[in-house]
Structures are given as structure tokens and as C-alpha cells.
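User: I'm putting together notes for a lab meeting next week and I want to include a structural view of one of the chains we've been expressing. I don't have a solved structure, so I'd like a prediction I can at least talk through. The sequence is below, exactly as it appears in our construct file.
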Amino acid sequence: MKKIFTFCFVALSAMMAQAQVAVTFNVDMTGTTVDPNGVHIAGNFNDVNYDGTAENAAYVNWNPSAIALADQGNGIWSVTLNIVPERYEFKFINGNDWPFAEDVPNACQVEVNGNDNRFWSISGLNATESMTVCYASCAACGENTIRFRVDMTQEAAGVNPVGIFVAGNFQGWNPAGSQMIDPDGNGTFEGYFSIGTATNAQFKFINGNDWAFAEGIPAACNINGNREINVVEANTVADVICFSACGPCQAPTPVLFRVDMTLQTVNANGPHVAGSFQGWNPADPASLMTDPDGDNIYEVTLLLQPGTYQYKFVNGAAWADGNESVPADCNVGGNREVVVAADPVVEHFCYNQCGAECVVDPAAADITFRVNMFTTTPDAAGVWMIGGFTNPAWQAGAVQMTDANGDLVYECTVNISGSADIQYKFMNGDVNAPVNEEGTGIINCGIANGVGGYNRIHTRSGIAEVLNTVCFDSCADCIIGVQEAMALTVLNAYPVPANEFVTLSFGQVKSAPITVRVMNNLGQVVSTQYMGNLPTGNNQVRVNLEGVASGIYAIELSNGTERTAVQIAVK
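Assistant: Thanks for the context. Below is the predicted structure for the 571-residue chain, given as C-alpha cells.
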């Protein structure tokens, strides 16, 4: 016999007037000997909320013999019921009496403990709906099921009127595809879903049906930005998790975020704080910071579950408005980090700085950036410099670099004001394609940018600067070995070893300007000398080595498009 239950349901107004949905129930009896009396289904199909009013008069509540399923072959038995949208409870029966009712696994019971009926919410969004499950299982035969459970009681904004959803790799990461329900109104939303034959699932809970409302998952339980659960049995019941936390809900901790905007022009939309605790959404109204006393210090207090979170201040309500370039001394993965325990927390910083008190920025000054493209073919779309100091920042404000003398060293000069610490990198080609950015080659001279890559860093002096030339995607300048000689003809050097001068002889097939670079064994350029425009045929140039320390050096000749090198000893 079915177990007695005491759930309260809110009836939909004018239920009888609602359009009915053709709902097909399929049960796979493979591996189960079907009773001679056939297969039946029983549930609250007549009076859904037990108030004495029949929502679906054609059916009888909880009659084990009234609704028979038809054998469709291949072990599938089915029946289609025309019923109004509601949340139904039911069981399949192998026969026509309660002793033959299925044992419903915990993963798809109305409650994990107590009421052992199946449940299914009919939305009414579609004219027809169907389900197929294996008898006494939560999913189709051979598939795994997980019952997800999330506690929403600590959400200050409350539950989104459109409902609570879960999205994951088991359903194509559709934020509106898998709604959860709160069967007993205690603030814990549940739903069971098939994950096919997979043995784990990655997922997120969403307070709504759009990614803008996705939870922020703390680092301690974050796998590539998502949650993850391993299947321990075919019908797995997940632990109850607090929304945006790693474990059960605890009393939230007030965290006061304060940012000094004295050195910034404040965006008309106001500063916001965006972080892993709110889905990195800079437009979240709850994260808007205000300046009640007009001292240019903006603040907002958020209630957070204990855990470790990353965040940034945003000067506006969109990432494109501009966000902090967090200095290296207080940078964790490109962001700020806060550890929340039981006691209240105050996070107080100057925008773009590590301290609470703003330090006056250096004077505005020109900085010349130089990148050597010898080891990378310059893209027809151009070579670019992007940084957090341009307006707009990064790709939107990319600065194109030029190679005036054809030596493959591209340059650009930018007048920079604001923070002393700047972050930047070079791009080869379309600035809107992340694949064109410098990559892990700058890991040892850069800083994590928070999105899986790295940025170069520099501290401005407040006077004009010309930065050292670096090879694209490298921390040092390019160095050319003897075996890397290109289309310039044979290069000879004498005397060897050299002292104050070395004479180079070479040939070229057309007249071109010649540049000579002397590089040490670390790839660092110690001398660059321009030899002028030299004619077609055999040529000689005399390279000045005064001031060059004893050692082994590479002498490189470049005519703009071609280059060659020879190794010499200097004493």
C-alpha cells in the first residue's frame, strides 16, 4: 500500500479551465517478469491537492487497478493521460494491487525519507510530455540518476519568481532546461535527472533560468568553475548544498567591501563588486557600491557563507566599463581574495592598489613598448599591444605597433597616466581572437590575469621610458643560432677571437638597410648598430665591440625581411 503523506499544495486558479496536457508514462519492464494482470499506474491524478475537487475527473486517486498500461513491445509498457499542469505523485504496479507496487529509489521519491512515491511536475508549456523509466529505477534502464538538492534559505535576494534550476554537462548546460521544486516548502529545492551512462556530473545551481543568476562556487569545491559529483550508485542522492557554498547552509557572515575611488573618474553607473560569490556579474544590483558620506570611498555589505572567494572592483556595471588591474603583491589568480569565517569581515582597498590608503600615481609619461617578431610571422592583421591603461581597456583599446626599419622589432608609444603598476601583453593578428595573445611563454615574467592567461607587468616611473625589447611570447629578446640563418648569403667574421672590433663579410641579393645586433648567451641584446643602406652583392661592415665583456656572443645581421647570424668569441 502507498505510504500516507501530508504535503500541502497550492492549487492553480481555475484549474478546471486549464488546458490539459497529453502526458505519456512509459515504464521499461526489461528484466522483470510481468504479472498476468499486466502493469498499472496509480497516483493523485483525480484530486491533485485532496481538496475534494476533481481536477481530472476521468481518473481515480490511488486505485491500483484502474489505469492499465499497454504493452508496446521490447519491454515497454505505456499509457497516455490527459491531465492539467500540476505536480503529480504516482507509482507503477506490476499487477493490479498494492502488494505488487514498485520500490521507488530514494533518488526519485517525493522525499528521500518518508513518502516513497515518484513525482513529476507538468509545466503546461508543451501540449505533450513523456517520460521513460526502468521499473523500480529513476532513469531509463542502464542509465544513472542523480537527485540534486540545494538550500536557498540564505539567499538575501530570495528565490527568483521563475524558479530554481540546475544546469550541467548531463543536459547540455541549458540554464532553463532542468527546473527543481521545493516539495515541502522548507527552502530546499530538489530534482532528479538522468546523466545517461556517465559516472560523474559537473553542474551549477541557478536562482532563475538565465546564466546571469548562476551561483558563485567557492574555490574549495570549484572544478573548472563548476560543481562535480561522482556516481556511487545508479540512483545517487546528492548531499544538500547551500547555494553558492561548499556545504550545508550556515549563518551568513557580513562582509563589508570598501573601495577608495579618489584617483578614479567614477562611472555614472557606480562602482560594483563582482566575484565568485555572485557569479561574477558586475550588473548585479545587490553589488552596487555607494558613497553615503561623499568621501569617495564606496561600500556595500554582502552576507556570505563561510568560504574562500575571489573578486574585483568594477568601475561601472559592465566589464567593458573597466575593472581593476590588481597589483602583483595582492593578486590571486588575477583577482583579489577574501576568506570568510564566522566573524564579520572588512575588505578595504584603493582601486587598482593593494593598500587601503590611495598612493598618488606617478605623473603621466610616454612609455615605448617593443616586441621582436623574429620567431613569429607577423600577421597581416597587425601586431598589437593591449593593456589595462588604455581607454577603453584591453582589446577594445588595442594599440597597433609598427616596424619602421623592417628589423621585425615592432614598437608603439603610449602616454600613460594613473596607477604606477600597469599590465599589458602583445597580440599577433585579430585582437578579438584570444588565440592571438601571448601565452605561457610569459609566465615567468608575468602575472595571472584571472581567465587562464598571463599579462606582462611594469611599474611606471613617471618619466618617459623605453622598455627592453622582448621576443613575442617570451621574457627575453630573440636569439638566433648559427643553424637558423635565413636567406642572407654566407656570413664570415674576423678576427676571431675579436677584441674592440669585428669585421663581417656577407652578400645580399638586393640593396637593403642593414642592422647588426650583438646578443649574449641569454638572448639579451647588448648592442644594436645601424649600418645604413648597403648595395646588392658582397659587403663588409665593421662592428664596434667596445664595452662588450669577454664571452661568447651571437652577431646577427638583418636586412628587414631576412637575417643571419654567426657566433664569435670576444676577449
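A couple of points you could mention at the meeting. The longest strand covers residues 525-534. Residues 145-242 form a domain with the Immunoglobulin-like fold (CATH 2.60.40.10).

User: Perfect, that's what I needed.
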